[in-house]
């Protein structure tokens, strides 16, 4: 997962709004979003290589999503999969604060990550590259492959887009959020971050929706949770070309 946008308790009718793109190599095997056979309470896509996930939600409203922290010089080949962090929270019973407190003790085992998780009452954020876990106050948030709200051009642009979409009263339309996630424009070279992957890759990775011959946005996900705790979860799958090739929609009533 390489871009997560969150509106947390900023819209009168939707306490939680999520719009997210998962970016990955096209060859990595993945299952589309569904309820898992071995964990039927979890809804999300699944990485078939490591059996974890980048984003998911449960029937009871536990939510978690993760991005990798781009830091190639500190990458450890034998590190455990970061996708297990989302999976284990969703499958467990610990509250977010307890889960992150325990995770902090062993966070150095993992390559860099940033993690957002919680339930209907609280959302928490933690990165093993950026200090202690925190409870998120109501707000508009953006997370790419760095720390929460890092001022990368794509994060700034996407957050402002989410702010516009959620500033309108009344029903939110998933299409407005998918349109935001589909933006392929790139900033000027002088605005690019330097994360150690080289200028050409910085250009490729700088757009909200990423497309290249071998790597890009594999799926876009929109989650809308309303005041009655009804959850709409929609995922669109991509295969490197124009337009999505598969769409799935789930509605959870609590």
Quaternary status: single chain
What would the average pLDDT be, to the nearest integer?
A: 95
Q: Helix/strand/pairing class, anyone?
A: alpha+beta
Largest sheet: 7 strands, antiparallel
CATH class: Alpha Beta
* CATH homologous superfamily (4th level) name: Penicillin V Acylase, Chain A
How much is the radius of gyration in Å? 17 Å
What name does the CATH topology carry? Answer: Penicillin V Acylase, Chain A
- Shape, principal axes of CA atoms: globular
The CATH architecture: 4-Layer Sandwich
Q: Any idea how many domains?
A: 1
Helix/strand order, N-terminal first: EEEEEEHHEEEEHHHEEE
Give the fraction of residues assigned to helices: 10-25%
Contiguous helical run count: 5
Model description:
The chain is an alpha+beta fold and about 250 residues long. The chain has one domain (about 5-250): 4-Layer Sandwich (Penicillin V Acylase, Chain A), CATH 3.60.60.10. It has helices at about 85-90, 95-105, 155-165, 175-180, 200-205; strands at about 5-10, 15-25, 30-35, 40-45, 55-60, 65-70, 115-120, 125, 135, 140-145, 215-225, 230-235, 245-250.
């Amino acid at each position: 997962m390489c871009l997560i946008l969150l509106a947390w308790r900023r819209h009168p009718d939707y306490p939680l709004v999520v719009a997210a793109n998962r970016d990955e190599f096209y060859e990595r095997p993945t299952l589309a979003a569904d309820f898992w056979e071995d964990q039927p309470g979890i809804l999300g896509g699944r990485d078939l290589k490591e059996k974890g996930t980048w984003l998911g939600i449960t029937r009871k409203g536990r939510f978690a999503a993760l991005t990798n922290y781009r830091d190639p010089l500190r990458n450890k080949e034998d590190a455990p999969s970061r996708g297990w962090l989302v999976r284990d929270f969703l499958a467990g019973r610990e509250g977010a604060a307890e889960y992150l407190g325990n995770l902090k003790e062993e966070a150095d085992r993992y390559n860099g990550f940033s993690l957002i998780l919680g339930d209907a009452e609280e959302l928490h954020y933690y990165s093993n590259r950026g200090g202690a876990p925190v409870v998120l106050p109501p707000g508009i948030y953006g997370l790419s492959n760095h720390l929460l709200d890092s001022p990368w051009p794509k994060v700034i642009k996407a957050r402002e887009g989410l702010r516009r979409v959620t500033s309108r009263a009344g029903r939110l339309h998933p299409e407005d959020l998918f349109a935001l996630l589909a933006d392929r424009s790139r900033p000027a070279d002088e605005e690019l971050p330097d994360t150690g992957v080289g200028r050409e890759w910085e250009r490729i990775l700088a757009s909200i929706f990423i497309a290249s011959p071998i790597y890009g946005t594999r799926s876009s996900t929109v989650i809308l949770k309303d005041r009655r705790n009804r959850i709409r979860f929609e995922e669109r799958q991509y295969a490197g070309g124009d337009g999505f090739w598969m769409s799935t929609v789930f509605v959870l009533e609590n």
